[in-house]
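User: I'm putting together notes for a lab meeting next week and I want to include a structural view of one of the chains we've been expressing. I don't have a solved structure, so I'd like a prediction I can at least talk through. The sequence is below, exactly as it appears in our construct file.
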Amino acid sequence: MEDHEIETRGFVTRAIFIFLVAAVLMLGLLARFVDLQILKHGIFSTRADENRIQVQPIASDRGLIYDRRGVLLADNRPIRTLAVVTERIADLDTAIGELASLVDISDDEIAGFRRRIEQPRRPYEPVALKVNLTDEEVARIRVNGHRWAGVEVDDENLRYYPLGSLMVHAVGSVRRISEDDLDTLDAVRYSGTKFVGRFGVEQFYERLLHGEVGYRHVEIDVRGRVLRKLEELGEEPAVAGQNLTLHLDSRLQTAAYAALGERRGAIVALDPRSGGILALVSSPGYDPNPFITGIPQEEYRLLEGSPDTPLFNRATRGTYAPGSTFKPIVALAGLTTGVTDWERTIIDTGEFRLPGQSRVYRDWSWTTTNSGGQGIVDLRKAIFRSSNVYFYQLGTRVGIDSLGEFASQFGFGSATALDVDAVEGVLPTRVWKKGARGEDWYLGDTVNMSIGQGHLLVTPLQLATSAMVIANRGRWVQPRLLLSSDTGLSGFDAPSPPQPVRGPTEQDWEMLIDAMEDVVHRGNQGFRENGTAWFYIGQDIGYRMAGKSGSAQVVEIRQGEEYDEEALDERERKHAWFIAFAPADDPRIALSVLVENGGGGSSVAAPVARKVIDAYLLPQYARL
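Assistant: Thanks for the context. Below is the predicted structure for the 624-residue chain, given as structure tokens.
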């Protein structure tokens, strides 16, 4: 028999249990709803916005660089870049293959892209795959853009150097930010920036040229594409970098390059009044523009492996024996120490021997004139005829200690330019030789140094600086590239310039300059009495130039042997030097010219110097 009362009680009990369970679940759901919608509303609202709102950096426009005439040396050109956000692409290889079917992407571009994505970078940062897209290529990508998440066409400004190789070693260039750069650059200031100054002015004045980063809020879709700017959330515009004006004169730079022609060498021209670097040439050069977007490996290997070393800046980092261009310094050292004067004479037989030694040190005229010497020589003639024998004697009498100390006042052995990355060269001393070679200093070392040979090494910039100091009669101004910036900057917090050269009298300076004028202008006196450069540049010159030639040996000539240029490999021949300034009584330009393995300083380097100075001073090359 069924008991309806028991069944009713069981049903009620189960119903109440189910109700209580449902009520508990509902209360839990309600509590969670309150927690999410009320208590944690702000947190989750922010998270939702972060999923669709992104703060993007706005890269600043890099400051422009001009020469003293207003000619643009470094520009920014708008380009469009195919960029990929790798974090948003599941199959990168497939995506690259599909993109390559739409636009021409070279193997070098793909290899460069893969190198860049392996380097440390900011998350979700677009990485350039191909730069400088054409309008047609942009259209193809945008029409097919729905096929890939993370593929973008970015508008950006790319650095461009209108004069290419002509200015590369002076102005420098930018390169893509590397892994090493990320360790030193300010991550916030450089967010959104892909390039940094690597050489020359671009590197030295990076802080001024870079500018300040801005930011903006944008709404993005699930694929990471920008839908719209959210101007209501605020935007901080980027601040462009400062524009710089340099002392460089692009017309003079062009003339200097043309004067060197196809030869390897360097020219540095300075304004003695300000120290401004008017021209800084290292030849051969290279076009920096392909390096910005990424040069093919094969082309880079050709440049890097070239025996002409176009990537190397000879003007500021090349070190060479100065040869006879060092003799004016030795002359002033001798006058300062009192071991000679302008009237003291010697008989130059073409040979010099140290007491008690059999080694012969010869004059350059030994084989040139077949006469074996220059006859009776005083200090003035020793300069305009470049008598080695006179300076052998003078240098040994001055001594290495006094000679080294005096020469240091002209900037030898130190980097004196304010805003140029230059090496110090070598101003040898007893201490230097002991530390560098583990050897004592010998009197023969002093003999060699007296004519600018031996261990003495200088840069073309240092020799131009010494010519400028002589032109200024011992007064120092430090070489510099920067003329001004947008803020009126005409320099920077720089150390005080070196003190004026101590020792020579006013008469010494004027007589030295007279002797250097004789190098160029003294002629029709007979071979032994003409200036060494008169025949090559002095016969039709319309202004007074003071100069000094030099030829520096590259390989050692053994005792008993003669220098035979024709028997030597071209790269073993002497370097040709010439330093000069003009007009001699009121100098407006001072320079040094180096022609690597060129041979004679007077016959090869002096005509180059003449062409450069002509280009700067003569009326047809009107200056601002």
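A couple of points you could mention at the meeting. Residues 4-39 form the longest helix (36 residues). Residues 55-246 form a domain with the Penicillin-binding protein 2a (Domain 2) fold (CATH 3.90.1310.10).

User: Perfect, that's what I needed.
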